[in-house]
Protein backbone atom coordinates (compact mmCIF):
# COMPACT_ATOMS: atom_id res chain seq x y z
CA UNK A 1 0.00 0.00 0.00
CA UNK A 2 2.56 2.61 -1.09
CA UNK A 3 1.82 6.24 -0.52
CA UNK A 4 3.91 9.36 -0.89
CA UNK A 5 3.89 12.45 1.27
CA UNK A 6 5.38 15.59 -0.26
CA UNK A 7 6.02 19.01 1.22
CA UNK A 8 7.07 21.69 -1.26
CA UNK A 9 6.34 25.36 -0.52
CA UNK A 10 3.47 26.54 -2.73
CA UNK A 11 5.18 29.91 -3.24
CA UNK A 12 8.72 31.22 -3.09
CA UNK A 13 10.71 34.25 -4.24
CA UNK A 14 13.21 33.75 -7.01
CA UNK A 15 16.54 32.78 -5.48
CA UNK A 16 15.06 31.54 -2.20
CA UNK A 17 16.56 28.37 -0.76
CA UNK A 18 13.58 26.10 -0.13
CA UNK A 19 13.27 22.87 1.81
CA UNK A 20 11.63 19.87 0.19
CA UNK A 21 10.39 16.94 2.27
CA UNK A 22 9.30 13.53 1.05
CA UNK A 23 8.18 10.35 2.76
CA UNK A 24 7.42 7.10 0.97
CA UNK A 25 5.65 4.29 2.84
CA UNK A 26 7.66 1.12 2.29
CA UNK A 27 8.63 -1.87 4.45
CA UNK A 28 12.33 -1.78 3.35
CA UNK A 29 12.82 -5.50 4.02
CA UNK A 30 16.60 -6.00 4.27
CA UNK A 31 16.91 -9.51 2.87
CA UNK A 32 18.95 -10.50 5.92
CA UNK A 33 16.10 -11.75 8.07
CA UNK A 34 14.90 -15.32 8.37
CA UNK A 35 11.47 -16.74 9.10
CA UNK A 36 10.89 -19.09 12.05
CA UNK A 37 11.45 -22.03 9.68
CA UNK A 38 14.80 -20.64 8.55
CA UNK A 39 13.86 -19.37 5.08
CA UNK A 40 15.34 -16.01 4.05
CA UNK A 41 12.81 -13.20 3.83
CA UNK A 42 13.54 -11.85 0.34
CA UNK A 43 14.94 -8.36 0.04
CA UNK A 44 12.31 -5.76 -0.82
CA UNK A 45 13.65 -2.22 -0.74
CA UNK A 46 13.45 1.03 -2.61
CA UNK A 47 16.74 1.32 -4.51
CA UNK A 48 16.46 4.73 -6.12
CA UNK A 49 14.90 8.13 -5.58
CA UNK A 50 15.03 11.11 -7.92
CA UNK A 51 13.61 14.60 -7.99
CA UNK A 52 13.25 16.67 -11.16
CA UNK A 53 12.53 20.40 -11.24
CA UNK A 54 10.85 21.29 -14.54
CA UNK A 55 12.43 18.22 -16.11
CA UNK A 56 15.97 18.70 -14.80
CA UNK A 57 17.23 16.24 -12.21
CA UNK A 58 18.20 18.18 -9.07
CA UNK A 59 18.48 15.37 -6.51
CA UNK A 60 19.13 11.64 -6.60
CA UNK A 61 19.70 9.01 -3.91
CA UNK A 62 20.56 5.32 -3.98
CA UNK A 63 19.07 3.31 -1.13
CA UNK A 64 20.55 0.23 0.51
CA UNK A 65 19.18 -2.28 3.05
CA UNK A 66 20.36 -0.17 6.00
CA UNK A 67 17.73 2.49 5.23
CA UNK A 68 14.79 2.26 7.63
CA UNK A 69 11.19 1.60 6.68
CA UNK A 70 9.20 4.52 5.26
CA UNK A 71 12.21 6.51 3.99
CA UNK A 72 12.01 10.20 4.82
CA UNK A 73 14.17 12.35 2.54
CA UNK A 74 14.56 16.05 2.96
CA UNK A 75 16.81 18.35 0.93
CA UNK A 76 17.20 21.95 -0.19
CA UNK A 77 17.20 23.60 -3.57
CA UNK A 78 17.02 27.10 -5.01
CA UNK A 79 13.68 28.32 -6.36
CA UNK A 80 14.48 29.50 -9.89
CA UNK A 81 11.18 29.43 -11.77
CA UNK A 82 7.53 28.49 -11.44
CA UNK A 83 6.73 24.94 -12.38
CA UNK A 84 6.68 21.42 -11.15
CA UNK A 85 8.74 19.10 -8.97
CA UNK A 86 8.46 15.45 -9.95
CA UNK A 87 9.50 12.67 -7.60
CA UNK A 88 10.13 9.04 -8.44
CA UNK A 89 10.91 6.03 -6.29
CA UNK A 90 11.91 2.67 -7.82
CA UNK A 91 12.96 -0.56 -6.22
CA UNK A 92 12.78 -4.33 -5.84
CA UNK A 93 9.82 -6.37 -7.07
CA UNK A 94 9.15 -3.77 -9.76
CA UNK A 95 8.37 -1.06 -7.24
CA UNK A 96 7.69 2.27 -8.95
CA UNK A 97 5.88 5.28 -7.53
CA UNK A 98 5.67 8.90 -8.59
CA UNK A 99 4.39 12.13 -7.10
CA UNK A 100 4.54 15.80 -8.03
CA UNK A 101 4.05 19.26 -6.57
CA UNK A 102 3.70 22.70 -8.12
CA UNK A 103 5.51 25.85 -7.07
CA UNK A 104 4.91 29.50 -7.97
CA UNK A 105 8.10 31.56 -8.04
CA UNK A 106 7.66 35.33 -7.94
CA UNK B 1 -9.36 20.57 61.34
CA UNK B 2 -5.70 20.22 62.10
CA UNK B 3 -3.19 22.01 59.99
CA UNK B 4 -0.47 19.61 58.94
CA UNK B 5 2.93 20.85 59.95
CA UNK B 6 5.82 19.95 57.77
CA UNK B 7 9.15 19.71 59.43
CA UNK B 8 11.74 22.05 58.16
CA UNK B 9 15.31 21.18 57.40
CA UNK B 10 16.27 22.99 60.58
CA UNK B 11 14.19 20.45 62.52
CA UNK B 12 15.90 17.68 60.62
CA UNK B 13 19.36 19.01 61.22
CA UNK B 14 18.51 19.53 64.89
CA UNK B 15 17.10 15.98 65.05
CA UNK B 16 20.21 14.59 63.48
CA UNK B 17 22.37 16.51 65.92
CA UNK B 18 20.34 15.08 68.79
CA UNK B 19 20.87 11.59 67.44
CA UNK B 20 24.59 12.23 67.13
CA UNK B 21 24.72 13.66 70.67
CA UNK B 22 22.88 10.62 71.99
CA UNK B 23 25.37 8.40 70.25
CA UNK B 24 28.27 10.28 71.83
CA UNK B 25 26.67 10.20 75.26
CA UNK B 26 26.26 6.49 75.04
CA UNK B 27 29.54 4.88 73.93
CA UNK B 28 27.94 1.44 73.62
CA UNK B 29 26.05 2.69 70.56
CA UNK B 30 28.66 2.21 67.87
CA UNK B 31 27.00 4.40 65.28
CA UNK B 32 23.80 6.20 64.45
CA UNK B 33 21.17 4.45 62.39
CA UNK B 34 21.85 4.72 58.65
CA UNK B 35 20.35 7.74 56.95
CA UNK B 36 18.48 7.24 53.71
CA UNK B 37 17.23 10.27 51.85
CA UNK B 38 14.59 10.05 49.14
CA UNK B 39 14.20 12.99 46.77
CA UNK B 40 10.80 13.16 45.09
CA UNK B 41 7.46 12.40 46.71
CA UNK B 42 5.58 10.77 43.84
CA UNK B 43 4.45 7.18 43.64
CA UNK B 44 8.02 5.86 43.50
CA UNK B 45 9.60 8.05 46.18
CA UNK B 46 6.75 7.86 48.69
CA UNK B 47 6.38 4.08 48.29
CA UNK B 48 10.16 3.69 48.68
CA UNK B 49 10.37 5.86 51.81
CA UNK B 50 7.52 4.00 53.48
CA UNK B 51 8.93 0.60 52.51
CA UNK B 52 12.30 1.56 53.99
CA UNK B 53 10.70 2.38 57.34
CA UNK B 54 8.54 -0.72 57.23
CA UNK B 55 11.49 -3.02 56.49
CA UNK B 56 13.76 -1.43 59.09
CA UNK B 57 12.13 0.92 61.61
CA UNK B 58 15.58 1.93 62.93
CA UNK B 59 16.46 3.69 59.68
CA UNK B 60 16.36 7.46 59.50
CA UNK B 61 14.35 8.13 56.39
CA UNK B 62 13.93 11.59 54.89
CA UNK B 63 11.56 12.42 52.05
CA UNK B 64 12.51 15.63 50.28
CA UNK B 65 9.64 17.10 48.30
CA UNK B 66 8.86 20.80 47.85
CA UNK B 67 5.13 20.35 47.20
CA UNK B 68 2.96 19.77 50.24
CA UNK B 69 0.23 18.28 48.06
CA UNK B 70 0.81 15.56 45.51
CA UNK B 71 -1.43 15.50 42.44
CA UNK B 72 -1.64 12.05 40.83
CA UNK B 73 -1.51 11.58 37.07
CA UNK B 74 -3.40 8.25 36.86
CA UNK B 75 -7.11 8.99 36.28
CA UNK B 76 -6.31 12.65 35.59
CA UNK B 77 -7.54 12.23 32.02
CA UNK B 78 -10.98 11.83 33.61
CA UNK B 79 -10.53 15.24 35.22
CA UNK B 80 -9.82 16.73 31.79
CA UNK B 81 -13.03 15.17 30.47
CA UNK B 82 -15.07 16.52 33.40
CA UNK B 83 -15.72 13.07 34.86
CA UNK B 84 -13.71 13.55 38.04
CA UNK B 85 -12.55 16.43 40.20
CA UNK B 86 -8.91 17.33 40.70
CA UNK B 87 -9.17 17.05 44.48
CA UNK B 88 -9.81 13.29 44.08
CA UNK B 89 -6.27 13.20 42.63
CA UNK B 90 -4.63 15.01 45.53
CA UNK B 91 -2.82 13.61 48.53
CA UNK B 92 -0.77 15.03 51.38
CA UNK B 93 2.28 13.63 53.15
CA UNK B 94 0.70 13.59 56.62
CA UNK B 95 0.54 9.83 56.82
CA UNK B 96 4.03 9.50 55.41
CA UNK B 97 5.23 11.75 58.22
CA UNK B 98 3.17 9.77 60.73
CA UNK B 99 5.20 6.70 59.74
CA UNK B 100 8.24 8.42 61.24
CA UNK B 101 9.59 9.65 57.93
CA UNK B 102 10.98 13.16 58.04
CA UNK B 103 9.23 15.07 55.29
CA UNK B 104 11.33 18.02 54.15
CA UNK B 105 9.15 20.44 52.18
CA UNK B 106 12.02 22.00 50.23
CA UNK B 107 13.53 21.50 46.82
CA UNK B 108 16.98 19.94 46.71
CA UNK B 109 19.31 22.26 44.81
CA UNK B 110 22.52 20.26 44.65
CA UNK B 111 23.98 16.88 45.41
CA UNK B 112 27.55 16.30 46.49
CA UNK B 113 28.03 12.60 45.86
CA UNK B 114 31.54 12.58 47.37
CA UNK B 115 30.46 14.18 50.65
CA UNK B 116 27.08 12.41 50.46
CA UNK B 117 25.20 15.62 51.09
CA UNK B 118 22.15 17.31 49.65
CA UNK B 119 22.27 21.09 49.37
CA UNK B 120 19.33 23.47 49.67
CA UNK B 121 18.76 27.00 48.37
CA UNK B 122 19.76 28.67 51.65
CA UNK B 123 23.06 26.82 51.87
CA UNK B 124 21.96 24.24 54.43
CA UNK B 125 23.00 20.67 53.86
CA UNK B 126 21.63 17.25 54.70
CA UNK B 127 23.90 14.23 54.77
CA UNK B 128 22.95 10.70 53.78
CA UNK B 129 24.36 7.21 53.63
CA UNK B 130 22.21 6.28 50.68
CA UNK B 131 20.20 8.51 48.42
CA UNK B 132 17.21 7.53 46.30
CA UNK B 133 16.22 9.82 43.46
CA UNK B 134 12.61 9.61 42.32
CA UNK B 135 12.47 12.84 40.33
CA UNK B 136 9.91 11.82 37.74
CA UNK B 137 10.03 13.68 34.46
CA UNK B 138 10.85 17.10 33.20
CA UNK B 139 9.20 18.38 30.05
CA UNK B 140 11.66 19.35 27.36
CA UNK B 141 10.71 22.90 26.50
CA UNK B 142 13.60 23.04 24.02
CA UNK B 143 12.47 20.10 21.89
CA UNK B 144 9.58 21.42 19.79
CA UNK B 145 10.28 24.83 18.23
CA UNK B 146 7.71 27.31 19.53
CA UNK B 147 6.80 25.19 22.55
CA UNK B 148 8.28 26.64 25.70
CA UNK B 149 6.88 27.08 29.17
CA UNK B 150 5.05 30.27 28.17
CA UNK B 151 3.43 28.47 25.22
CA UNK B 152 2.16 25.76 27.57
CA UNK B 153 -0.28 28.27 29.06
CA UNK B 154 -2.00 28.60 25.67
CA UNK B 155 -1.32 25.01 24.57
CA UNK B 156 -1.40 22.96 27.77
CA UNK B 157 0.57 19.73 28.01
CA UNK B 158 -1.37 18.47 31.04
CA UNK B 159 1.41 15.91 31.41
CA UNK B 160 2.05 16.79 35.03
CA UNK B 161 -1.23 16.69 36.89
CA UNK B 162 -2.41 19.88 38.59
CA UNK B 163 -2.99 23.34 37.15
CA UNK B 164 -2.26 22.12 33.63
CA UNK B 165 -4.95 19.45 33.92
CA UNK B 166 -7.52 22.06 34.90
CA UNK B 167 -6.33 24.42 32.17
CA UNK B 168 -6.97 21.85 29.45
CA UNK B 169 -10.37 21.06 30.92
CA UNK B 170 -11.33 24.76 30.96
CA UNK B 171 -10.26 25.16 27.35
CA UNK B 172 -12.43 22.22 26.32
CA UNK B 173 -15.35 23.67 28.28
CA UNK B 174 -14.90 27.04 26.57
CA UNK B 175 -14.57 25.58 23.08
CA UNK B 176 -17.42 25.96 20.56
CA UNK B 177 -19.28 22.94 19.27
CA UNK B 178 -17.48 21.91 16.07
CA UNK B 179 -13.98 22.77 17.29
CA UNK B 180 -10.91 20.70 16.51
CA UNK B 181 -8.96 19.34 19.47
CA UNK B 182 -5.39 18.43 18.51
CA UNK B 183 -3.26 16.19 20.70
CA UNK B 184 0.45 16.16 19.81
CA UNK B 185 2.21 12.99 20.98
CA UNK B 186 6.00 12.66 21.21
CA UNK B 187 8.16 9.68 20.31
CA UNK B 188 9.10 7.17 23.02
CA UNK B 189 10.24 7.17 25.75
CA UNK B 190 7.48 9.03 27.52
CA UNK B 191 5.64 8.90 30.82
CA UNK B 192 2.66 6.54 30.67
CA UNK B 193 2.84 5.46 27.00
CA UNK B 194 -0.89 4.72 26.43
CA UNK B 195 -2.13 7.85 28.20
CA UNK B 196 -2.34 10.09 25.08
CA UNK B 197 -4.83 7.64 23.58
CA UNK B 198 -6.82 7.32 26.78
CA UNK B 199 -6.94 11.11 26.76
CA UNK B 200 -8.13 11.20 23.13
CA UNK B 201 -10.86 8.73 24.08
CA UNK B 202 -12.11 10.62 27.12
CA UNK B 203 -12.00 13.98 25.32
CA UNK B 204 -14.07 12.33 22.56
CA UNK B 205 -16.50 11.20 25.25
CA UNK B 206 -16.81 14.77 26.50
CA UNK B 207 -17.29 16.10 22.96
CA UNK B 208 -19.80 13.42 22.02
CA UNK B 209 -21.98 14.27 25.01
CA UNK B 210 -21.55 18.09 24.94
CA UNK B 211 -20.19 19.25 21.57
CA UNK B 212 -20.97 16.48 19.12
CA UNK B 213 -19.81 18.27 15.97
CA UNK B 214 -16.25 18.50 17.32
CA UNK B 215 -13.37 16.18 16.50
CA UNK B 216 -10.09 14.96 17.97
CA UNK B 217 -6.94 14.80 15.88
CA UNK B 218 -3.94 12.90 17.26
CA UNK B 219 -0.63 13.88 15.65
CA UNK B 220 1.77 11.15 16.65
CA UNK B 221 5.55 10.81 16.35
CA UNK B 222 5.12 7.03 16.66
CA UNK B 223 3.65 4.46 14.31
CA UNK B 224 2.57 1.92 16.91
CA UNK B 225 1.58 2.21 20.53
CA UNK B 226 0.56 0.19 23.56
CA UNK B 227 -2.85 -1.53 23.42
CA UNK B 228 -3.44 -0.03 19.99
CA UNK B 229 -5.96 -2.65 18.83
CA UNK B 230 -8.03 -2.16 21.98
CA UNK B 231 -8.08 1.61 21.52
CA UNK B 232 -8.92 1.39 17.84
CA UNK B 233 -11.77 -1.01 18.52
CA UNK B 234 -13.12 1.21 21.29
CA UNK B 235 -12.95 4.30 19.06
CA UNK B 236 -14.88 2.49 16.34
CA UNK B 237 -17.44 1.29 18.86
CA UNK B 238 -17.86 4.42 20.98
CA UNK B 239 -16.72 7.38 18.89
CA UNK B 240 -17.10 6.52 15.20
CA UNK B 241 -15.60 9.24 12.98
CA UNK B 242 -14.64 11.43 15.94
CA UNK B 243 -10.97 10.54 16.45
CA UNK B 244 -8.43 10.71 13.65
CA UNK B 245 -4.82 9.69 14.23
CA UNK B 246 -1.90 10.46 11.95
CA UNK B 247 1.10 8.28 12.79
CA UNK B 248 4.77 8.89 12.10
CA UNK B 249 4.86 7.28 8.65
CA UNK B 250 1.81 9.31 7.61
CA UNK B 251 3.64 12.47 8.61
CA UNK B 252 2.26 12.84 12.15
CA UNK B 253 5.42 14.09 13.86
CA UNK B 254 4.97 17.66 15.10
CA UNK B 255 7.90 19.84 14.05
CA UNK B 256 6.83 23.21 15.43
CA UNK B 257 3.94 25.06 17.03
CA UNK B 258 2.80 28.65 17.27
CA UNK B 259 1.00 29.41 20.50
CA UNK B 260 -0.21 32.82 19.26
CA UNK B 261 -2.30 31.24 16.51
CA UNK B 262 -2.78 27.73 17.98
CA UNK B 263 -1.06 26.37 14.89
CA UNK B 264 0.60 22.97 14.85
CA UNK B 265 2.97 22.09 12.04
CA UNK B 266 4.12 18.62 10.99
CA UNK B 267 6.56 17.66 8.24
CA UNK B 268 3.64 17.43 5.83
CA UNK B 269 0.78 19.50 7.20
CA UNK B 270 -0.43 22.58 9.06
CA UNK B 271 -3.29 22.41 11.52
CA UNK B 272 -5.11 25.08 13.46
CA UNK B 273 -6.57 23.80 16.69
CA UNK B 274 -9.46 25.17 18.71
CA UNK B 275 -7.81 23.43 21.65
CA UNK B 276 -4.20 22.29 21.37
CA UNK B 277 -2.79 19.74 23.81
CA UNK B 278 0.92 19.56 23.09
CA UNK B 279 2.74 16.79 24.93
CA UNK B 280 6.43 17.55 24.45
CA UNK B 281 9.31 15.05 24.65
CA UNK B 282 10.54 14.39 28.17
CA UNK B 283 13.62 13.61 30.20
CA UNK B 284 14.41 12.68 33.80
CA UNK B 285 13.56 15.32 36.41
CA UNK B 286 15.99 18.20 36.98
CA UNK B 287 17.71 16.75 40.04
CA UNK B 288 18.80 13.74 37.96
CA UNK B 289 20.70 16.05 35.66
CA UNK B 290 22.42 18.06 38.39
CA UNK B 291 23.31 14.93 40.36
CA UNK B 292 25.07 13.51 37.29
CA UNK B 293 22.89 10.39 37.23
CA UNK B 294 21.36 11.16 33.80
CA UNK B 295 23.30 10.22 30.67
CA UNK B 296 23.24 11.80 27.18
CA UNK B 297 19.71 10.44 26.61
CA UNK B 298 18.41 12.56 29.48
CA UNK B 299 17.45 9.44 31.45
CA UNK B 300 19.27 7.55 34.22
CA UNK B 301 21.03 4.23 33.63
CA UNK B 302 20.71 1.85 36.59
CA UNK B 303 21.67 -1.60 37.76
CA UNK B 304 18.32 -3.39 37.41
CA UNK B 305 18.84 -5.51 40.53
CA UNK B 306 19.52 -2.68 42.98
CA UNK B 307 18.44 0.47 41.06
CA UNK B 308 21.92 1.81 41.83
CA UNK B 309 22.97 4.53 39.42
CA UNK B 310 25.58 3.36 36.94
CA UNK B 311 27.10 6.83 37.01
CA UNK B 312 27.17 8.01 40.63
CA UNK B 313 27.93 5.89 43.74
CA UNK B 314 25.48 5.53 46.66
CA UNK B 315 22.62 6.92 44.61
CA UNK B 316 19.67 4.87 43.40
CA UNK B 317 17.21 6.05 40.75
CA UNK B 318 13.63 4.81 40.50
CA UNK B 319 10.44 5.61 38.63
CA UNK B 320 9.97 7.44 35.33
CA UNK B 321 13.52 8.87 35.48
CA UNK B 322 15.37 5.56 35.28
CA UNK B 323 16.09 3.49 32.19
CA UNK B 324 14.18 0.33 33.01
CA UNK B 325 14.16 -1.50 29.68
CA UNK B 326 10.84 -3.14 29.04
CA UNK B 327 9.02 -1.56 31.97
CA UNK B 328 6.72 1.24 30.83
CA UNK B 329 7.09 4.49 32.76
CA UNK B 330 4.04 4.37 35.00
CA UNK B 331 2.85 4.94 38.56
CA UNK B 332 2.55 1.22 39.02
CA UNK B 333 6.13 0.58 37.91
CA UNK B 334 7.46 3.44 40.05
CA UNK B 335 5.70 2.08 43.13
CA UNK B 336 7.02 -1.45 42.53
CA UNK B 337 10.51 -0.10 41.86
CA UNK B 338 10.36 1.99 45.04
CA UNK B 339 9.64 -1.08 47.15
CA UNK B 340 12.25 -3.23 45.40
CA UNK B 341 14.82 -0.45 45.77
CA UNK B 342 14.03 -0.18 49.49
CA UNK B 343 14.67 -3.91 49.89
CA UNK B 344 17.95 -3.61 47.96
CA UNK B 345 19.11 -0.74 50.20
CA UNK B 346 18.26 -2.65 53.37
CA UNK B 347 20.30 -5.61 52.09
CA UNK B 348 23.20 -3.40 51.07
CA UNK B 349 23.28 -1.63 54.45
CA UNK B 350 23.28 -5.03 56.17
CA UNK B 351 26.10 -6.22 53.91
CA UNK B 352 23.87 -8.86 52.36
CA UNK B 353 23.81 -9.73 48.65
CA UNK B 354 20.89 -8.27 46.69
CA UNK B 355 17.86 -10.33 45.75
CA UNK B 356 16.66 -10.29 42.17
CA UNK B 357 13.45 -8.27 42.01
CA UNK B 358 10.29 -9.37 40.28
CA UNK B 359 8.16 -6.33 39.55
CA UNK B 360 4.45 -6.24 38.90
CA UNK B 361 3.01 -3.51 36.76
CA UNK B 362 -0.56 -2.68 35.84
CA UNK B 363 -1.89 -0.06 33.51
CA UNK B 364 -5.61 0.62 33.13
CA UNK B 365 -7.08 2.68 30.34
CA UNK B 366 -10.56 4.04 30.80
CA UNK B 367 -11.93 5.13 27.43
CA UNK B 368 -15.48 5.95 28.58
CA UNK B 369 -17.31 5.76 31.91
CA UNK B 370 -17.63 2.05 32.69
CA UNK B 371 -15.38 0.99 29.80
CA UNK B 372 -11.75 0.10 30.51
CA UNK B 373 -9.05 -2.33 29.50
CA UNK B 374 -5.61 -3.05 30.82
CA UNK B 375 -2.10 -4.34 30.40
CA UNK B 376 -0.53 -6.24 33.27
CA UNK B 377 3.08 -7.29 33.25
CA UNK B 378 5.75 -8.98 35.31
CA UNK B 379 9.25 -7.66 34.76
CA UNK B 380 12.61 -9.12 35.76
CA UNK B 381 16.22 -8.20 35.15
CA UNK B 382 17.68 -9.98 32.15
CA UNK B 383 21.13 -9.22 30.76
CA UNK B 384 21.55 -5.95 32.68
CA UNK B 385 18.13 -4.62 31.76
CA UNK B 386 14.50 -5.20 32.68
CA UNK B 387 12.55 -7.47 30.37
CA UNK B 388 8.92 -8.52 30.33
CA UNK B 389 8.63 -12.02 31.66
CA UNK B 390 4.86 -12.15 31.35
CA UNK B 391 2.42 -9.67 29.87
CA UNK B 392 -1.35 -9.94 29.77
CA UNK B 393 -3.45 -7.55 27.75
CA UNK B 394 -7.26 -7.49 27.87
CA UNK B 395 -8.81 -9.40 24.98
CA UNK B 396 -9.73 -7.28 21.94
CA UNK B 397 -13.04 -9.11 21.69
CA UNK B 398 -14.79 -8.85 25.05
CA UNK B 399 -18.27 -8.09 26.30
CA UNK B 400 -19.20 -4.75 27.81
CA UNK B 401 -19.49 -6.56 31.16
CA UNK B 402 -15.76 -7.34 31.00
CA UNK B 403 -14.96 -3.70 30.17
CA UNK B 404 -17.23 -2.56 33.00
CA UNK B 405 -15.46 -4.84 35.48
CA UNK B 406 -12.09 -3.50 34.36
CA UNK B 407 -13.34 0.05 34.89
CA UNK B 408 -14.19 -0.89 38.48
CA UNK B 409 -10.81 -2.59 38.89
CA UNK B 410 -9.12 0.58 37.66
CA UNK B 411 -10.63 2.49 40.59
CA UNK B 412 -9.61 -0.25 43.03
CA UNK B 413 -6.10 -0.18 41.62
CA UNK B 414 -5.91 3.60 42.10
CA UNK B 415 -7.09 3.27 45.70
CA UNK B 416 -4.49 0.58 46.44
CA UNK B 417 -1.56 2.39 44.87
CA UNK B 418 -2.36 5.73 46.50
CA UNK B 419 -2.86 4.12 49.92
CA UNK B 420 0.47 2.38 49.42
CA UNK B 421 2.24 5.65 48.77
CA UNK B 422 0.33 8.20 50.84
CA UNK B 423 -1.60 6.19 53.46
Automatic annotation (TrEMBL), chain A:
Pfam families: SoxZ (PF08770)
InterPro entries xref list: Ig-like_fold, Ig_E-set, SoxZ, SoxZ_dom
Residue span(s) of domain Sulphur oxidation protein SoxZ: 9-101
UniProt xrefs under NCBIfam families: SoxZ_true
Record protein name field: Thiosulfate oxidation carrier complex protein SoxZ
Taxonomic lineage from the root: Bacteria, Pseudomonadati, Pseudomonadota, Alphaproteobacteria, Hyphomicrobiales
Gene: soxZ
Amino acid sequence: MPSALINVPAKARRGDVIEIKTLMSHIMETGYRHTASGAVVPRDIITNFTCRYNGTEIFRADFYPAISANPFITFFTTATESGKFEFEWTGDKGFSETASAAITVE
Amino acid sequence: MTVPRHRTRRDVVRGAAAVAAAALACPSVAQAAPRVAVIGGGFGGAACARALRRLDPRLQVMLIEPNTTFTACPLSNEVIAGLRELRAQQFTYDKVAADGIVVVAQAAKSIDAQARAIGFADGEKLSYDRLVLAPGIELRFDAVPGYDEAASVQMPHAWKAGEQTVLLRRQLEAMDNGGLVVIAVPAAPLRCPPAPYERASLIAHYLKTRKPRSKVLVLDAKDNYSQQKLFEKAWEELYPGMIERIGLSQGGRVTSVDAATNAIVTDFGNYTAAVANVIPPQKAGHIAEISGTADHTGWCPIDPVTFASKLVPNIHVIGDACIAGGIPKSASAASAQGKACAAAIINALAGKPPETPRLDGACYNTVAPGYAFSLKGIYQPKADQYAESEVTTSPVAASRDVRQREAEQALDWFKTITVDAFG
